[in-house]
Specification:
single chain; 289 residues; 2-methylcitrate dehydratase PrpD
Length: 289
Amino acid sequence: MSYRLLREILSDAQNENLKFWQVILNDNCRENRITEKESFSKMTDMYIAMKEADSNYDSKAKSASGMAGGDGKLLEDFRKQPNRLIGDFLTKVIEKAVKMGESNACMKRIVAAPTAGSCGVIPAVLITYEEEKKVAQDRIIEALYVAGGIGEVIAQSAEISGAKGGCQAEIGSASAMAAGAVVYLEGGDNEAIIHSAALALKNMLGLTCDPVGGLVEVPCIKRNVSGAVNAIVSSQMAIAGIRSRIEPDEVIDSMKRIGNLLPECLRETSKDGLAITSSAIKIMENISS
């Protein structure tokens, strides 16, 4: 992608009188030398793959390590109970985020958005939005272009890899992408879109990548939930008119610097953090035996 700054996207959107998603669509077409129809069709295929992964969730499947599987069904049952503290929308987001993460751990087909480890955030938010708000699928595809544009800027200017930037680069990026997508769907302007991304990313700064046994399961799957809920909350703040006091592009720059400062032991090496706790050691001993 030709954009390294979110402000560049907003500038082109204003100069060309386009929406955020249309700027990203046009850029994608130029870069890949494809038509708008071809680009939209490819993005639609990815969204359909997300929905198929959600609908094909297997509550009986367990990951090879035995650490992941079945929690999505527990959340589905919980959602159907009365007197919950949170409403249907957020409960469903939480459920879908876990289901997608578990499907990844169980080697099912998922969409890396932007990575496999953060695959639950965007689908949980957007599939739930489509189901609960009854919007046309094409609107969700447009929102995916918004998410994709934010993700590409982060990838160009910082990192989306946990091994390079910590979990802030994976779950944080996914959360920022989802937040911007929701603002678009809710009718927010371009300024609100990039500030929602900044608000979401700021909440994830410094998040370490410390998976037990080097597997994308614990604590990764539950972090998808945090990223998804954070995206919803951040989008609502932006729609309400709240703006990040730190410029969105500066937030992305900060994430890169923080990622570089994280010691190697907290960047997917499983040499510290949660990965070396007594509980983690027992889990790994059970797997090895």
